[in-house]
Amino acid sequence: MARNTEFATVEGWKQSGVVTKKVWHINPGACPICIPLDGKTVSLTKEYSPNLPSGSTLETKVSAPPAHPNCGCFVLPITITKQQQMINMKKKEDELEKVIQENKDKTDKNIKEIKENAKNVIEKEVGNLRDINKN
Fold first, then answer.
1. What SS3 class is residue 31?
2. How far is 65 from 50, CA to CA, in rounded Å?
3. Residues 69 and 100 reside in one and the same domain
4. List of long-range contacts for 35-39, beta carbons under 8 Å, 24+ apart
5. Residue 98 belongs to what domain range?
6. Over the stretch 56-108, which tens digit does the pLDDT of each residue have?
7. Which one of 53, 77, 109, 134 is most buried, counting C-beta atoms within 10 A?
8. What does the DSSP assignment read for 35-93?
9. Does 34 share its domain with 69?
10. 8 Å CB contact between 20 and 79
11. Which of 7, 72, 83, 78 is nearest to 34 (CA)?
């Protein structure tokens, strides 16, 4: 259950766009498996490698605590600065504006082609009507 909770927490951090890394923290009385991980910072997509005894059946890599049964460790997020958030938001706005402009250009071109086609059809039909009226 704890592993699912930590997994969901890290997934939420990824989706937030604000958290860039995670830091492993131990509680007082931590075990020899987790002590070497205390303060270790990794990106959200990286895993930690607990200090497992040889022959251990525990997982050799974990994305977040628990590293073992009764593990009391936890990870905390490292967030980007407000300034970086604004820069990222501006980049996304610029990308969106570019897509909007590209679609507008395509739409304008399509409208122009439709008008040209309609004009040609009308001229042709008017010509046909004139031919009919001549006869």
1. coil
2. 10
3. no
4. 37/67, 37/73
5. 82-135
6. 777 788 888 888 888 889 999 999 888 887 888 899 899 999 999 898 888 88
7. 77
8. GGGTT-EEETT--B---PPTT--S-S-BSSS-SSTT---EEEEEEPPHHHHHHHHHHHH
9. yes
10. yes
11. 72
